[in-house]
Amino acid sequence: MAVVFAYVTTPSEAEAARIGRALVEERLAACVNILPGMRSIYRWQGRVEEAAEAVLIAKTRADRFTDLSARVRALHPYELPCITALRVEAGDAGYLDWIRHESLALSSPG
Description:
The chain has a single domain, classed as 2-Layer Sandwich (Alpha-Beta Plaits). Strands 2-3-1-4 form a 4-stranded antiparallel beta sheet. The chain is built from 3 helices and 4 strands, in the order E-H-E-E-H-E-H. By secondary structure, the chain is of the alpha+beta class.
């Protein structure tokens, strides 16, 4: 199973932490990194905007990305959040196995 890094921008480090914790607790991601202090310049609704943001990088299985993306949208305050998947082409085998295992959906009991 392929591994992806989900790249998500958020309006603050606190929002990134709130969303990231939910993703890990719900096993949608094995790990989340939060990079505060990003500055974004972008075009939105016909105007050039600038804002401070934080980046959230969630490490997950490729087959979990759709669910992860839906959950981020549900938790995210932006009307149109940046949620993209970057496929991991290579990496330490043990680390990638850990991501696969920790982001595996658990079966419900019974």
